[in-house]
Amino acid sequence: MPAATTPQAPSLPAAPPVAVGVAPLPRPELEAFVDGVVQRSMARDHIAGVTISVVQNGQVVLKKGYGFANLGQRRAVDPDKTLFRIASISKTFTWIALMNEIESGHMRLDGPVNLYLPEPLQLKDQGKKTQVRLRDLMTHTAGFEDRAMGQLFERDPNRIRPLADYLRQERPRRVREPGLLPSYSNYGAALAGAAVANVTGKPFEQLVTEEIILPTGMRHTTFREARPWRDNLPAPMSEELAAELSDSFSWTPLGWKVQPREFIGQVAPAGSASSTAGDMARYMTLLLNGGAIDGKTVFSARTAQAFRTPMYRPAPEAAGWNAGFQDIPLPGGRRGFGHGGATLYFHSNMVIAPELGLGVFISVNTDSGANLPATLPATIIEHFYANPPAVPQASAISYEQAKLYEGDYLTTRRAYGGLEGFINRVIGRATVRATADGRLSISEGGSATLFNAAGRPGVFKAVDGPLVIVFDANGDRPSRFYAARGFATYERIGPMRSALLLIVTVGLAGLASVATVLGTIVRNRREARQTPVQARASQMQTAQAVLWLISAACMGVFAVRASDQTAAFFGWPSGWLLSGSACALVAALMAVVTLGALPMVWRGGRRVDSWTAGRKVAFTFTALLFVFLSVLLGLWGYLLPWS
Predict the structure, then answer these.
(1) How many Cβ atoms are within 10 Å of 121's Cβ, its own excluded?
(2) Could you write out the DSSP letters of every residue in 144-179?
(3) E strand segments, 398-476
(4) Which run of H or E residues covers position 577?
(5) What is the rounded average pLDDT of the residues 187-196?
(6) What residues are paired with 282 via a beta bridge?
(7) What confidence tier does 391 reach under pLDDT thresholds 50, 70, 90?
(8) Lowest-confidence range among 20-29, 241-250, 305-314?
(9) Quick one: CA dihedral 229, 234, 239, 244, positive or negative?
């Protein structure tokens, strides 16, 4: 991949103090190291374009673009001109604006958010005793469920709604009291942005531009989106910036495919910003310099300290939140702060390491490139400041002790009802298994990570990195663990919600359905003798079998199509999923009726006119199996086509 390199600026004005006792990064070695890591990842993960900046002690140590922002025009990524969607890193601007209002006394950190919202946007009690505070929004502990399908991203600019309309129409369910468990919420961040805008009397996009973007000198950063003008929406991105916005890509067997632009302006405070690596270098310098740059103070030293200090941790050694910024464990036992971000196609990460005077920003424009931004900042720190031990440490517990943690766990960051809830129960689980040497293997989303017990009960550290997970005990068995990056809690689920049980039941029900349908075809005249009740019961069970098979086929088509996340998000709710759910619901209702007919089926009539004992047993087994499948699918949330 060709690389576009911008000459290193000598410095950024108003440099932060030099990190004491820390050798500065050697620029040639850093560039060579990053080149190797990035180019290997681009080839392996089929990434079209990457932009990166590294700052230290007020200096831009590295600022570089790799690959392409536009394939048709062969436009290379320019770190000073090419805008990438930085997604949830946008939230950090929102938290700065919010903390400024708290510092000025216009808002209170522990004040209920409803005090700062117009009446249509205020949160309802929904049976909860405690009001949601600004603090809860900043630490992602408001207790909201998390919904995204069909509304978080838009492809058609005509479907974009004003922030207030979105917050009113897409209000999530409150599923727990605030302040109890971390569960990442885009809605909560958008609500915080609306509260700040309401208090200041300025539209959010104008507020963040005037208070943060312009004073910081970020001339190629905006929360506005490249779309047509609409009277009821904020002004779109300027033509000059829109011309430099990178395209979105996905990799296909035929090469890169340019994807439709994702709009997220309806929740602008949570994710609509676009920026360049050069501008993000200035932003990281602002964060490292305690809120000041070029002689201008954007936020106070007290706020700067809040961004570096855990405001909330669910357990002493668990990942937490620093006034909206992620609390990030780093190699060498250090801790940093920052934020990651992802749209459907862009993946970004910003990590600030104050002890090193260091900031790293990286973004990619291809959906398959998530791993590079997630790992590169820690990889740089590890390579230059914290070489890993040659031999991984042994686990502090035995296999028998590790087995206590085994089980299936479900994320709290999910929808709790409807078909989206069903999908989240399928994909939002983690499997914990003990290894023979006392480690834990935690599998999630197709990847597995090994963790060593760290010597303190319930605390486990990744074998190949700084990430830490912490289990909460409930009696003798751990009931939950806190995700390594603080985004969610994983709660232990019982056997009735086991994926293995569902798979086995669906498989058996599929075989029984096929056998039931084939039985109506191959059964001879003698075997077909039956009472009127048995005849009607047989017809009902055959209808159920057909419905179950149709439902399975619809789910299969949906699963194949959902592998394309564009189709899944923009096509929600899928007609295939709705049809499969509706067929399953009708089959489940019929299964209950069939269960009630079992005594009459067994009673039969004269022997010559009734089923054989074998057929009665087969019918009963199938009826019970269909009922059990119905109960399972009901618990998983699949029987809700209207939702």
Answers:
(1) 20
(2) B----TTTSSBSSGGG---HHHHHHHTPPPB-S-TT
(3) 407-411, 429-434, 440-444, 447-453, 459-462, 468-474
(4) helix 575-596
(5) 97
(6) none
(7) confident
(8) 20-29
(9) negative
The answer for residues whose C-beta is within 8 angstroms of residue 46's C-beta and 6 or more apart is 251, 256, 366, 368, 369
Q: What is the pLDDT of residue 18?
A: 67
Exposure of 138 in the CB half-sphere (CA atoms within 13 A): 33
Backbone angles phi, psi at 111, to 5 degrees: -80, 145
Q: What is the pLDDT of residue 266?
A: 95
Distance CA 468, CA 452 (A): 9
pLDDT in tens, 44-62: 999 999 999 999 999 999 9
Tell me how crowded residue 552 is: count the other CB atoms within 10 A of its CB: 18
Which pTM was predicted? 0.90
DSSP secondary structure of 192-218 = HHHHHHHHHTS-HHHHHIIIIIHHHT-
What one-letter code names the amino acid at 311? Answer: M
Residue count (the chain): 643
Quick one: pLDDT band at residue 615, thresholds 50, 70, 90?
confident
Which residue is associated with the tokens 């490292």? 288
Strand-pairing partners, residue 349, are 340, 362
Instruction: Concatenate the DSSP letters of all residues of 234-302 into one string.
Output: -----HHHHTTBPPEEEEETTEEEEEPPPB-GGGHHHH--EE-HHHHHHHHHHHHTTTEETTEESS-HH
In this structure, how many other beta carbons lie within 10 angstroms of the beta carbon of residue 112?
17
Say which residue the tokens 């909560």 belong to: 188
Rounded Cα–Cα distance for residues 6 and 417 (Å): 50
What is the distance in angstroms between the CA of the first residue and the CA of the last residue of the chain? 46
CA dihedral 57, 58, 60, 61 (to 10 degrees): -10
Tokens coding 255: 């090469």
Between CA 194 and CA 188 the distance in angstroms is 10
Among candidate residues 122, 151, 194, the one with its CA nearest the CA of residue 415: 151
